[in-house]
Amino acid sequence: xAKINIPQLNRVIDLDPSLSLMENLLxxxxxxxxxxxxxxxxxxxxxxVFPTSPLEPASEAEHTTxxxxxxxxxxRLSCQVYLDDNAMVETxxx
Length: 94
Ligand code: FES
Description:
By secondary structure, the protein is an alpha+beta fold. The chain has one domain: Roll (Ubiquitin-like (UB roll)), CATH 3.10.20.30. The chain contains two helices and five strands. Strands 2-1-5-3-4 form a five-stranded mixed β-sheet. A hairpin with a 4-residue loop joins β1 and β2. The termini are far apart. It binds FE2/S2 (inorganic) cluster. FE2/S2 (inorganic) cluster binds at residues 34, 36, 38, 40-45, 65, 77, 79.
């Protein structure tokens, strides 16, 4: 089973590929900032994602939200990202 590594919290969790990255984290009681509940519009759930396999590129809507949120290169909306292999994630508030 693939894993999500969260070194800032010293946590490694199992990945459920049917869930978004945000949903995976919340399912393990790892907090994710959000004010839109995962609709991809607030930009607060953005985080650095370091996948071992290439991710699906961001959609036009995700790009728009990332740009409005002044996201750094490499940041993705965790509510919009689906992983299918091991990955490491980081954010500013953990
Ligand atoms: S939770 Fe709002 S953009 Fe992801």
